[in-house]
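Hi W.,

Here's what went into the run:
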Amino acid sequence: MTEAELVNKIRKLRQIKPSSDWVALTKSQILGEEPKVLFFPFFKPAKAGLISVLILFGLFAFSQNSLPGDFLYPIKKITEKSQAVFVPEAEKPKVQLELTNKRLEELAEIAETNQVRKLPAAVEEYQTNVSEAAKSLEKIKEPEKAKEVVVEIKKLEENKQKVEKVLATKIDSEKEGDSVQGLYKTPAEVLIEDLEKRTLSEEDQKILEEAKELYQAGKYSEALEKIWILSQNK
Amino acid sequence: MTNRWRKEFGKIYDQYIDKIYRFIFLKVNSQEIAEDLTSETFLKGWEAYKNQKSKIKNQKEIENLQAFLYQIARNLVIDYYRKKGKTQIISADQVKIIDPKTNLEEKAAVNSEVENIKTALANLKEEYQNVIIWHYLDDLSISEIAKMLNKSEETARVMLHRALKILKNKLNQDV
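Here's what came out:
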């Protein structure tokens, strides 16, 4: 056997190779390399934006079921506020009342599930919303809009009573302007003014006068009760 | 930073994995043990590489990574035999050889030839095995081998010549 033949024989040992599967697996085990697409998409700048947007959407969607005192609750509030920006000025009082109704629903859920720790935050949220609703109602000038919001206020009143029944306590603020009763003030005022401009029968005129007296006495919801049917017929 | 080192060592891994595996396999003659010792070699190599890069744990500068990996592999094989008290028994059925040929007769002939050379190589002194593997299988130059052995090029050349002669004799004896 010549040296060249021997070297050729030795070189046949190059056929000895590890399996490619083992090579790949061992590499990932040693270097701790995870499949890039699945686990490390954040390192790819092009995907980072998309992932962030998806996470953001997920957070917004997830936060919609959160309650006051929850980690995601501020995100829910931000979402609501950003939605409110696009609402026309004339619709804002109604939207504000709907939000206040939402706060009541949250309060009801907290009360029913006995999540005592979240209660103070939820009551505060509700009161803040009532106050904001009262402010937005001040801008109402048209009787039609006033009538619309009265329907919402009535719903709010009913829900509030239900929650108070479960909690066995009053949840309205002591201040008139921050209570549901206070919400009736502007609609009552607008509807009274509207009726004053109209020609009324003697009997209707009498009802209107009684409503005005109730209004002067600060009994806004009762004043509204008086003139509600009159307003509906006009 | 670790990501960059990981990438760099990944390239080193790809470059040497076959060589180190074969180097170990020819000494332990078992796929399973060769896989274990090879992965341990690269794990130790990776640890040392990281330590060197981060300049911690008094890690000495790795001057020749190839030599460093072979040295780890050699030490692991020595440890393996020391711990297990095993002798190098060559068994044909433990060999895993990737062979593109499909003709059974041809395949058997090649396998038998490979087996003979493997058995003969395994019966050489460790340093003779090493120089043959490094020079004829892994294409290391005499100068590189000399550095790995920490000997002169002349000594390395003589050693290779002797190793080849002894291997030839062994193969002739078998025939």
